[in-house]
Amino acid sequence: MDTLDKLAILAEAARYDAACTSSGASRAPRAGALGTAQPAGCCHAFTPDGRCVTLLKVLMSNACSHDCAYCVSRSSASCARATFSPRELAELTVDFYRRNYVEGLFLSSGVLGTPDATTERMLACLRILRNDLRFNGYVHAKVIPGTSPELVGELGVLADRLSVNIELPSAASLESLCPQKRRDEVLRPMAQIRARRADEERRLLEERGRGAGARLPGRAPGDQPGLPGHAGRGGARRARGPMPLLAAGSGSALGLTLRRRPVGPRGRSFAPAGQSTQLIVGATPEDDNRVLTLSKALYDRFDLRRVFFSAYMPMLDDARLPDRGSPVPLRREHRLYQADWLMRYYGFEPSELVTPEEPWLDLDLDPKLAWALRNLDRFPVEVMDAPLELLLRVPGVGPVGARRIVAARARGPVTFDDLRALRVTLGRARHFLTCGGRRDDQSPLDAELIRERVTSDARSGAYNRRRRELEGGQLRLF
Prior knowledge:
Layout: H1 3-14, E1 45-46, E2 52-53, E3 56-59, H2 86-98, E4 104-108, H3 115-132, E5 138-142, H4 149-158, E6 161-163, H5 171-177, H6 183-207, H7 254-257, E7 275-281, H8 288-302, E8 306-311, H9 330-345, H10 350-353, H11 367-374, E9 381-382, H12 388-391, H13 399-409, H14 416-421, H15 426-429, E10 433-434, H16 447-459, H17 462-472
Parallel strand pairs: 3-4, 4-5, 5-6, 6-7, 7-8, 9-10
Antiparallel strand pairs: 1-2
Helix pairs in contact: 2-3, 3-4, 4-6, 8-9
């Protein structure tokens, strides 16, 4: 089998791994080296100068010895199998880079024999890529659960970002659908990556002479002085012992998302772009409340940069899985990403978006709007004196719009016409704001009328109409 035939098989098998994110790594050109890494430089993302760049997203091998029920490459599946040699894949990456096809590599693999044997093969490829071929571009590498700590450490030196896929939202589901995987084998490398990055951050701060006054990773990376009620990521949760898979997070995400990290990717030698993970939703019965609670716990415990959600796509017949004719609505995946964004950038807690009593996100309403409609007693918000944190909770007002409002009101009174000029989405925001004590003329005064109008507008909007059409023929998309 030639290289391009292998590529066709292994790139197709890799498409179920979520990787659509900015790289988070920044590396300038080096003499005698090939390529660079930009902070937004990967997988159909846009760099600061407007370029759209991509990764070569591929498996090292799909000859997997594991038999995970949902995976198209599981050992019992009837499919074409292929395996790259380390040099073959390294040279393919550089060849594609020189042709301007890609600007980096997303490398994962099925378990070829054992986790360590698979990782050794991935390491051999990355050593050839970095050392022999002098490739200086972005590399995202998947850590195979069960890999020895020594090999995980080597992988983090050669890759910009590492990820360990937790796969499913509960230990029971993992045991049921992935009989060869154990929860502790997934969580252990996550903890190792976090600890190694924290140690490096401490060392770099000390080298810069900031160790005495700066926030060190010994104090949890989420801690932010001056944010009342924010417990950060550390505290009691740093006690030794195994972490419950669904350990509860605490504190506001605002301190995490509106701060600058004390040490950025420049200067780091171990996984400078951090770590991420992926959750498959819909293959098992866990609701959105459980998914978001777990996501928050993972952010808090392991300093993850992203949790990716992947709507389960029925491809195989298995009694443990949903029927092939009942795909997970893509809107569920989208709403989970929106909820994740609210937790990371707007200071929301999972319990504000979903609860045990109402455990599912509304597919027709975005989570922020749904929260506002459940809490109409907190509105309207006065634009002239509302703090930034409160403005961020108004539907139609994002971080940029909230800061523009704060800047504009410092110069004088702000009207609804001014908000329109500031590019605030008044179609939603007008129902939740007052300007100088006055409501917008087009907003009803009665709370129930507001609820009916906003809900009707959202459900009849272009997004929901289009999504319903796509979901009606969802299987044809793949």
